[in-house]
Automatic annotation (TrEMBL):
It comes from Rotaria sordida. One of its GO terms (molecular function) is metallopeptidase activity. This is Archaemetzincin-2. Transmembrane segments: none annotated. GO terms for biological process: proteolysis. The keyword Glycoprotein does not apply. Its cofactor is Zn(2+).
Length: 328
């Protein structure tokens, strides 16, 4: 996605991972067990990267739990906890992922929050308020839209159309159109403006047939599952960024940065102990809603219903381990 290089990255040591997790003495039993029991059996350390992987292209220092808790960030509370999903452009294609399914899978990751899909808007609406930031990509020959223009439009919509809405925590724009963050970038999967609580994410390149997906027919079951899994991973990953969580370099984790499809497909649909603890802190006073066993149980049910076999096996194994130790 960009052309800089960082060849000095070394995966963290056990000691660095322990430091990143921090002191757990004041945590309740549920989250304490989830981030300490069976870690070596269930979580793989961050792998040695290949040339071209995210951490060899982008500088990542890692974010400890203590650093996360010191950041200024948006924290949900009882009257301020709705995550709005704003579809932009058409999703009326047999290969487009289901927004309803993506939102249903995402809900367990954000205990105490609501996720609501807003009525669809078009890119033509943007031109009413000036430029739409559109260009033709030199490689795909297809339209791309500049992320800053989309985020700016979503900010205007918030001020103009939802200015009396005291429920809004974040607004997430989603589109099947390709997007880019600047003239020196080829594309980006998504981008979050943490200060504004607004993000924009594209599912266009998640189809293996991109940029020719529009000309293709319906997916096979295998490809449908792949596109849906990628879409869920991108969506949940980027919403977690809006809570202030940075990329993970400690374990193989949903919050790892990804530069390639190979990295994306190797990324798990679960949070490592360090990122799970960050999300526990991110919920703020709504921690009463944060129950890891309930979260994992719901995600396991969804994995089974969507035929995510590897993910089902992981969540089932993790739940068995946590429940067994709880009963001993």
């Amino acid at each position: 996605m960009c052309a800089c290089a960082n060849r000095s990255f070394c995966p963290p040591t056990d000691r660095q991972r322990a430091k990143a997790l921090g002191d757990i003495c004041q945590l309740n039993d549920d989250i304490s067990r989830a981030i300490t029991i069976g870690i070596d059996e269930c979580f793989l350390p961050f792998p040695i990267p290949n040339v071209g992987d995210w951490v060899t292209v982008h500088t990542e220092q890692g974010q400890t739990v203590q650093e996360f808790e010191r950041t200024v960030r948006t924290v949900p509370h009882s009257s301020y906890r709705t995550i709005y999903v704003q579809p932009i452009g058409s999703f009326d294609h047999p290969r487009a992922p289901s927004l309803e399914t993506i939102c249903e899978f995402s809900r367990p990751f954000f205990p105490g929050c609501q996720i609501e899909i807003l009525p669809r808007i078009d890119f033509t609406d943007f031109s009413k308020h000036g430029q739409n930031g559109m260009r033709i990509n030199s490689y795909t020959k297809q339209p791309q839209y500049l992320t800053s223009f989309i985020i700016g439009h979503l900010k205007k919509m918030k001020r103009r159309e939802r200015k009396h809405d005291r429920q809004e925590l974040f607004c997430i724009g989603v589109t099947m159109a390709d997007i880019y963050p600047g003239s020196n970038w080829n594309f980006v999967y998504g981008l979050a403006s943490i200060d504004d609580g607004i993000g924009i994410y594209s599912f266009s390149r998640l189809d293996p047939l991109f940029p020719n997906a529009e000309m293709a027919g319906p997916c096979t079951d295998e490809v449908r599952i792949l596109i849906l899994k990628r879409s869920i991973s991108v969506f949940v990953h980027e919403v977690i960024h809006l809570f202030g969580v940075e990329h993970c370099i400690y374990y193989l984790c949903m919050m790892n940065g990804t530069e390639t499809e190979e990295e994306m497909d190797g990324q798990p649909l679960y949070l490592c102990p360090i990122c799970l603890r960050k999300m526990y802190s991110a919920i703020g006073k709504e921690k009463k809603h944060f129950n890891v066993i309930q979260m994992y149980t719901k995600i396991l049910e969804l994995c089974k219903s969507l035929h995510f076999k590897d993910e089902s096996a992981w969540y089932e194994n993790r739940l068995n381990l946590l429940n067994t130790t709880a009963n001993n």
